[in-house]
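Deliverable D5.2: sample structural annotation.
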Amino acid sequence: MAEPLFEQLQALQQEFRGHPPVDKWTPDLCGDMDMEIRADGRWIHEGTEIHRQPLVKLFASILKREGDDYFLVTPVEKWRIRVEDVPFIATQVARSESSGDAPLLFTTNTGDVVPLDGDRGWTLRPFGQPPQPVPYIEVRNGLQARVSRDVFYQLVDWAEDDAGQLSLRSGGHSFPLGSYR
């Protein structure tokens, strides 16, 4: 990867102190980049895993989804990348012990903290072999995180049971977790 692009991305991240407004950027497509986000959360560039977590976070901050395609975008460039499942994995969850209506807080593999509330997309989709329903949470702008197995087990421990249907209370709302029948 070219150093000037890396420096440009760092400057954008510092300017916006978090996630730049990629939803407002509409540059022309420059082409396909040999980059893939694997289902296990690894970022692969030209066949080599990116081990530098700050670089992964930087790329994640300029990730955009349009339909079924994913892009890395700046105000002047747009590169299509491949994503096996979804770009993020929810690796941790926390809840407030003091308030039953406080939202659960999910942390992704790139450090995003995502509250589960009524404004957040939450779905159950098949994943794995054999396919089993797994929760997915919207991180931002249509980008989703799959809930990791460890987090799923924690959620099951916190779940409410209604005749075999498990659900979570978070942010004053109920979210499906699945069925055990």
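Annotation notes: Helices lie at 3-16, 53-61, 149-158. The first helix runs from residue 3 to 16.
The annotation will be released with the project's public dataset once the embargo ends.
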